[in-house]
Structures are given as structure tokens and as C-alpha cells.
Design brief:
The protein has about 90 residues and is of the alpha+beta class. The chain contains three helices and four strands, in the order αβαβββα.
């Protein structure tokens, strides 16, 4: 998501393939992406897994540690035939 956002800010056309939970956090995340002008066409909804969370901890030296929780919805992105033309025309996949 971060890469997509920043590439778009540079004027590069991006598509985001991801998966969010069918929960309040997932709805808020999709709304946020759309408010940033990012397409959510290829974002899947997962009824069985929650939307991802990243916990950030900064120590007294201002060193940052990220704890990326799992398993979450994005761990279960499923391939869709609709991805094929998108991937064929892509210059890069991040």
C-alpha cells in the first residue's frame, strides 16, 4: 500500500492487489485508499481473516521496530483470472 501510494504521488499509474478483512478496519482502509485516489478494484474481501495490523514501537534511541501480525487477510490473497491482463502489461510487480 505504501509503495502504491508513493508511486502514484510521483505520477505513476498503479494498481493494488491485496486483501482486507470484512471488518471495520478493512472498510476504513478501503475508504482511505479511495480517498487517496488509489483503485481498490483488485482488493479482495476476506470473511475469515482480519485486516492486517502493524504495531510500531519506538525505543528511547528513536529506533523503530515493526511487528507485522499474521495470519491476516493479505496472507490469503487468491489468484483471479482478472489479474492476468493486469500482470501482463505491468512494468513491475512489488
Amino acid at each position: 500500500m505504501n509503495v502504491s501510494y508513493h508511486l502514484q504521488q510521483l505520477g505513476i499509474n498503479v494498481e493494488l492487489i491485496s486483501r482486507v478483512g470484512q471488518d471495520e478496519q478493512g472498510k476504513k482502509l478501503l475508504d482511505l485508499l479511495q480517498s487517496w485516489g488509489l483503485s481498490t478494484t483488485y482488493c479482495q474481501a476476506d470473511a475469515g481473516h482480519p485486516t492486517s495490523e502493524v504495531h510500531v514501537v519506538m525505543d528511547e534511541h528513536k529506533d523503530v521496530r515493526y511487528d507485522i501480525l499474521y495470519p491476516v487477510a493479505w496472507d490469503f490473497i487468491s489468484f483471479q483470472e482478472a489479474f492476468v491482463p493486469l500482470l501482463r502489461q505491468a512494468d513491475a510487480l512489488v
